[in-house]
Amino acid sequence: MSRSPQADTAARARQYWLMKSEPDEASIDTLAERGTLPWTGVRNYQARNFMRDAMRIGDGVLFYHSSCPQPGIAGLAEVSSQPYPDPTQFDPKSDYYDAASRQDEPRWMLVDVRFAGKSPLISLADLRAHEELADMVVLRRGNRLSITPVTPAEWRFITTRLMR
DNA sequence: GCCAACGTTGGC
DNA sequence: GCCAACGTTGGC
């Protein structure tokens, strides 16, 4: 099956994601200092599949602080690499070591994420207060996924209405 | 610290 | 392939 030259070169529309990080491990300030971070430690297949199969360089990221005194969106980032194997899976000293993963067939893939700006914290209560965001995946009851898709409308609302 | 919700494991 | 038990997530 051949594809047109346009299909090979045309960028797909930018997509958007929300990525949870525990600020004790990596906060928006950590990302601001370092510029980019490898998104290590994801050990959930659905979240891995988003990074491995769906993300593209330049996709927008809502950087979310979780498991902390003030959970919420703390800033913006963007996907800045192709997927590649998470090195921590091969490191026996890492909390994220996976003895069952093989070098020649890595189980866990990640992307790098680049800092794109800090925002005043947008709390869960703030997010839930807006009808426009009622269907956000991250707000769904029982949701535990550390990476969730964000619709263009949700992205627009958050970045243009809640972040100014 | 509690606990709801969900994913993974492993016996059968 | 079922499903109970167990572990983890993550807000409160």
UniProtKB/TrEMBL annotation:
Residues 15-159 form the EVE domain. Pfam families: EVE (PF01878). Coiled coil: none annotated. It comes from the Bacteria. This is EVE domain-containing protein. It comes from Cupriavidus basilensis.
